[in-house]
Amino acid sequence: MLGRKADGQPWRVGIQDPEDERGFPLFVLEVVDKTVVTSGGYERYTVLGGVKYHHILDPRTGWPAETDLLSSTVVGDISSVADGIATAISVMGSSGAAQVLGFKSGDPSSARLTRSAFEALLIKGKKSALMTRGLTCHVISLTPEVCLSTLSG
Fold first, then answer.
1. Torsions phi, psi of 61, nearest 5?
2. In this structure, is the dihedral angle defined by the CA atoms of residues 71, 80, 14 and 21, taken in order, positive or negative?
3. How far apart are CA 90 and CA 58, in angstroms?
4. How far is CA 101 from the centre of its chain?
5. Beta bridge partners of 140
6. Sign, CA torsion 95/98/101/105
């Protein structure tokens, strides 16, 4: 999203409910001069023998990643890097998200750089989601019953 809308307001990006039909967002993000990238296995998949196989593969097993996350949205300055981070979080799950985002990095300077450059909104299901602190004032919940917690490391 480049700049602001013509009326000076931030851009509003809907974050899809991974468990509902297309066009039903759970959240809206308000952003200015940021890229917004979402990874999840809810749109690109196949069903074989009653089992759903999505396209996000875990490199440790070669099989579709199985985590507690339905989708991971990353907000940042560089789309290609945000895409890689969103996919990595989709593979590692919410427990690995803090590490991927730099909250548990051994190098404090790289953690600061990562924290300031990328934020995340992670959907665990209709009733649960996590976000980084930097998105606190930028996320609008469209479903009041969703428990939106802050991701910490």
1. -120, -25
2. negative
3. 9
4. 11
5. 28
6. negative
pLDDT higher than threshold 80 for residue 75 = yes
Query: Buried (b) or exposed (e) across 25-42, using 16+ Cβ within 10 A?
Result: bbbebbbeebbbbbbbbb
Which long-range contacts does 64-68 make (Cβ < 8 Å, 24+ apart)? 65/41, 65/90, 65/91, 65/93, 67/91, 67/92, 67/93, 67/94, 68/93, 68/94, 68/95, 68/124
Chain segment 79-128, per-residue pLDDT in tens: 999 999 999 999 999 989 988 887 644 444 444 434 448 999 999 977 89
Q: What is the mean pLDDT of residues 116-145?
A: 89
Task: State both tokens at 152.
Answer: 């910490």
CA distance 57 to 4: 36
119-125 and 139-141 strand pairing = unpaired
Residue-level pLDDT at 153: 59
Nearest alpha-carbon partner for 85 in 94, 73, 95, 77: 73
What DSSP character marks residue 153?
A: -
Tokens of 80: 């290609």
Q: pLDDT, tens digit, for every residue of 27-58?
A: 999 999 999 999 999 888 999 999 999 999 99
